[in-house]
Amino acid sequence: MKTISAPILLSVLALSGAGCLAIKTEHEVKPIQITMDVNLKVDKELEKEIEQEKKAPPKHMAELKAMSDRGAVGMDNRGYLAVRGDLSDEEKDIVEDMNAKRRVRMGEIAEQTGAKRADVEKMRAEKMLEHLPAGAWYQDASGAWKQKK
Predict the structure, then answer these.
(1) DSSP structural state of residue 87
(2) Is residue 74 domain-resident?
C-alpha cells in the first residue's frame, strides 16, 4: 500500500475543494472605561484653595476669628460656617457672604473635577478640620458639635 504524506494530502484536498472550512468568528467591541480617581483631583483643588486663603485671607478674617473664638460660629460638616450663638446683623452678613463665596467655589471644583458637589463639600470639611486652630468648633460627620483640641 502506498502512503501519502500529510502535506501532499492537504494540497490535494485544498485543490479539490473537499477540505475547505469556513470559520466564522464574531468580535464584540466594547468601550474600555477608564476611571480616574476624582478624589485626587478634588483634593488637589482644595489644597490650592486653602493655600490661596492663607496667602490672601478673606476680607473679614479678624471678625470671623473673633466670632469663632467666642464660639458663635463653627464649621459645619460640609465646610461652611454655621451660626452657633448670637450674632449681630453685620456678623450674620459676613457669615452669609463667606458661605456664598464657598458655595460658588465648591460648585466650580465639582464642575472641574466631575465630582458631586456634596462629595466636594464633605472633603472640604475634612480638609479644613486639619487647619482649624485648637478651640474652634466643628461639626463631625454625624452632626454633633465638637471643639478641636
Answers:
(1) -
(2) yes
User: Is residue 73 a contact partner of residue 67, using CB atoms and an 8 Å limit?
Assistant: yes
Q: How many domains does the chain have?
A: 1
Residue 78 falls inside a structural domain: yes
Question: Each residue of 22-31: pLDDT tens digit?
Answer: 666 676 766 6
Cβ-contact 38, 114 below 8 angstroms: yes
List strand residue ranges (DSSP E) for the chain, in order. 73-75, 81-83, 137-139, 145-147
By the 10 Å C-beta count (0-12 exposed, 13-18 middle, 19+ buried), 63 is classed as: middle
Q: What share of the chain is helix, strand, coil (3-state, %, to 5)?
A: 50, 10, 40
Q: Which of 11-15, 81-85, 88-92 has the lowest mean pLDDT?
A: 11-15
Expressed as residue numbers, the domain containing 113 is: 38-147
The pLDDT score that the predictor gives to residue 107 is 96
* Cα–Cα distance for residue pair 67/102, rounded to 1 Å: 18
